Amino acid sequence: MSHLVCRCGEDMWNGQTPNDIEYWVYSDRQLDSILENDSISTLELSVKMNYNVWKCPKCSRLYVFERKNGVIESKAVKIYRLEEI
């Protein structure tokens, strides 16, 4: 379980499962590999992801966390702020 305060001040926490904060990101190739299995556990899914993304429910900023040495880093490697079009 992790906790993060967004730059807008929103307090985010992924301790509740399921939650609307956390997204798991896979490449198309990774997803094809995952879907080849008949049954997949949540643990298997979490181990195969390279990136974990949190979306702020208040301002929609995206915080991207990278997996290094089998562990999701605790500090975001990228932060994206949406632009209005």
Summarize the structure in words.
The longest helix has 8 residues, at 28-35. Strands 3, 4, 5, 6 and 7 form a five-stranded antiparallel beta sheet that branches. Strands 1-2 form a two-stranded antiparallel ribbon. It has one domain (3-80). It has helices spanning 28-35, 42-48, and strands at 3-5, 11-13, 22-25, 51-55, 62-68, 71-72, 78-80. The protein has two helices and seven strands; from the N terminus they run βββααββββ. The protein is globular.
Question: How are the SSEs placed, and which strands pair?
Answer:
Blueprint: E1 3-5, E2 11-13, E3 22-25, H1 28-35, H2 42-48, E4 51-55, E5 62-68, E6 71-72, E7 78-80
Antiparallel strand pairs: 1-2, 3-4, 4-5, 5-6, 5-7
Percentage of β-strand residues? 25-35%
Taken in chain order, the helices and strands follow as: EEEHHEEEE
The amount of helix comes to 10-25%
Low-confidence blocks of residues: none
Question: Which geometry do the CA atoms define?
Answer: globular
- Annotation field: number of helices: 2
Largest sheet: 5 strands, antiparallel
Tell me the total number of β-strands: 7
Query: Average pLDDT value?
Result: 83
Distance between the termini: 35 Å
Q: Helix- and strand-based class?
A: alpha+beta
Number of domains: 1
Q: Rg to the nearest angstrom?
A: 14 Å
